[in-house]
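Key result, reporting period 2: structure in, sequence out.
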């Protein structure tokens, strides 16, 4: 059986390390602690640790959540691809984070690592890991994209050459807004159901999840440190808020984690902490031809091999 206590200990430590790594970039703001607990007898039981930073000089909002919950009935979002488990009990734990920097030249980032186990009478218990990290820039810098993807490749390297291309493609396909026909960002890594087929042992699957989690800070913090003091004006700020709308649209329409949390009766404040504090929508807005904003669409937001020179 999986060692859930080991997974929990790792995730709590990961949350603490990411909090410390991001606070090191802030001159004064610090994360607030919001611990919560769902009582026994509730449809969804368990506990969590919210870490939220708002209105910082560097981060307009940064949320890093840990949760460990059990439920009596899997929601539809979790059984769509595993109908044999419908109606079963589940246990889920993970760390999920979304970081919205203040400076438009610093990219938004998202990361998640999680463990899931489902049980149903008459069906062999099934467990799996999932997660990844992805980057949503507002202005494109090739060197930033290369660093992000080279670090993602390093996270996968110990597990075989085929893992990074597979997880990168999975990320490109997952974080795609079908109704806009455009990517949310420049991708990174995404994987799910890792171990559910019984072909990967627990220790190997857990090691891969840890490597992804451990590589998030080295992938992201150098980008923020490089861009956080870049001068900007109202034009760049307006474009940042407009593009944040894409982030909201994806999370509310497609994101499996958001749907799972809402459908399972999860804690709404924790689920929606990923939303940016300010956002704008425009009707049929188009960037000025030849502008840096237009270049994001025409040159940058396309799945490509970022590992080349």
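The corresponding designed sequence is given below.
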């Amino acid at each position: 059986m999986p060692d859930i206590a080991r997974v929990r200990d790792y995730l709590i430590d990961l949350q603490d390390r990411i909090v410390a790594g991001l606070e090191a970039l802030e001159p004064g703001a610090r994360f607030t602690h919001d611990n919560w607990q769902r009582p026994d007898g509730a449809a969804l039981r368990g506990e969590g640790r919210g870490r939220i930073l708002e209105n910082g000089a560097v981060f307009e909002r940064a949320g890093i959540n840990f949760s460990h919950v059990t439920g009596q009935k899997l929601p539809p979002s979790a059984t769509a691809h595993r109908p044999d488990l419908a109606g079963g009990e589940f246990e889920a734990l993970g760390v999920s984070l979304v970081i919205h920097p203040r400076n438009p030249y610093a990219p938004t980032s998202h990361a998640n690592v999680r463990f899931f186990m489902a049980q149903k009478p008459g069906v062999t218990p099934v467990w799996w890991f999932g997660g990844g990290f992805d980057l949503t820039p507002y202005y494109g810098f090739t060197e930033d994209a290369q660093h992000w993807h080279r670090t993602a490749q390093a996270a996968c390297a110990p597990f075989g050459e085929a893992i990074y291309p597979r997880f990168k493609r999975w990320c490109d396909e997952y974080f795609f807004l079908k109704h806009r026909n455009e990517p949310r960002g420049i991708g990174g890594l995404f994987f799910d159901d890792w171990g559910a087929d019984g072909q990967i042992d627990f220790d190997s699957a857990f090691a891969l999840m840890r490597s992804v989690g451990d590589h998030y800070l080295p992938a992201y913090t150098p980008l923020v440190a490089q861009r956080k003091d870049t001068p900007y004006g109202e034009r760049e700020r307006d474009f940042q808020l407009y593009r944040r709308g894409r982030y909201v649209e994806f999370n509310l329409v497609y994101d499996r984690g958001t749907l799972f949390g809402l459908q399972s009766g999860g804690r709404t404040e924790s689920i929606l902490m990923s939303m940016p504090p300010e956002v704008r929508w425009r009707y049929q807005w188009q960037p000025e031809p030849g502008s840096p904003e237009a270049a994001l669409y025409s040159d940058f937001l396309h799945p490509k091999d970022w590992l080349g020179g």
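Strands lie at 32-38, 44-54, 59-71, 89-101, 108-120, 123-136, 176-177, 182-183, 187-194. The chain has a mean pLDDT of 90. This case is discussed further under Risks and Mitigation.
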